[in-house]
Design goal:
The protein is of the alpha/beta class. The chain is built from 9 helices and 14 strands. It starts with a strand and ends with a strand. This is Ribosomal protein L11 methyltransferase.
């Protein structure tokens, strides 16, 4: 395969993607070209960094010189800014499988890919493979949430997982004794991934309900609210998430950088007694208890 990469501003990405796909790219990937850790939009907004690198993957029989020239002309770009790399032949499925191993979180919670044996059959094991939506436990924000759940099992509690992604937190809560979970997300792929992962873990449909946020009953409140998204939507959603958490219940906020923690705590202290519960690799986990 041949990988072609070119720079783009956020407002140019659609045109660049269309050009790459229009000339035969089998896939296109966007990544940050600067030093911005991550940009999370408000619901309904497009998540993009200001400066990006757009990469297209092509079959090895393309005419590389001709394609470079065509892209440069179509995108009004100097051809020297278009870079290519010949990728070695590789079994990419096998490579992915080799890179993804069972991981333990806390004392007894494991994330185990389906092709691995469980390291501890008596532990709490979640079967999960890389898929449509992020959330396999490898990112610090997800890891901190899983460790928190392991240390504070939500026995017989009703749990809301807001921004469920792969459903890993909702499934983990159920495996650790939750009575039921609602897993909501604005991304349909996240709901698909959550349902598939729930089935893979033998979670009954009546215990895990998925959907867009507006599927939540108007009067639904929860003993535990989990929101592993990022700082900007967490700030905007504060009144809504507070309204979904019962008095005396707890909220877990993740996806925020260390430098954003104080602002988030100040925002949520209107409704919760807030504290920093964990920190890892520049990311912070906040815990709050809903005031009576």
């Amino acid at each position: 395969m041949i990988q072609i990469t070119l720079p783009a501003k956020a407002e140019q990405t659609e045109a660049v993607e269309d050009a790459l796909l229009g000339h035969g790219a089998v896939s296109v990937m966007l990544r940050d070209a600067g030093d911005v850790p991550l940009l999370e939009p408000l619901p309904g907004e497009e998540p993009l960094w200001p400066d990006l690198l757009v990469t297209g993957l092509f079959q090895p029989d393309i005419d590389l010189d001709e394609l470079t020239h065509i892209l440069a002309v179509e995108l009004a770009m100097d051809a020297s800014r278009i870079h290519h790399e010949v990728l070695p032949d590789r079994d990419w499925v096998r490579a992915c499988m080799d890179d993804f191993h069972p991981i333990r979180f806390g004392q007894r919670l494991w994330i185990v890919p389906t092709w691995h044996e469980t390291p501890d059959a008596d532990a709490v094991n979640i079967r999960l493979d890389p898929g449509l939506a992020f959330g396999t436990g490898t990112h610090p924000t997800t890891a901190m949430c899983l460790r928190w759940l392991d240390a504070h099992p939500p026995q017989a509690q009703e749990v809301l997982d807001y921004g469920c992604g792969s459903g890993i937190l909702a499934i983990g809560a159920l495996k650790l004794g939750a009575q039921s979970t609602w897993a909501v997300d604005i991304d349909p792929q996240a709901m698909t991934a959550t349902r598939e992962n729930a089935q893979r873990n033998d979670i009954p449909d009546e215990q895990l309900i998925t959907g867009l946020p507006d599927v939540l009953p108007e009067d639904a409140c929860f003993d535990l609210t989990l929101a592993n998204i990022l700082a900007s939507p967490l700030m905007a959603l504060a009144p809504a998430l507070a309204g979904r958490t019962r008095p005396g219940g707890r909220i877990i906020l993740a996806g925020l950088l260390d430098r954003q923690a104080n602002d988030l705590m100040s925002c949520y202290e209107r409704w919760f007694e807030m504290r920093i519960a964990d920190q890892q690799e520049g990311w912070t986990l906040l815990e709050g208890t809903r005031r009576q």
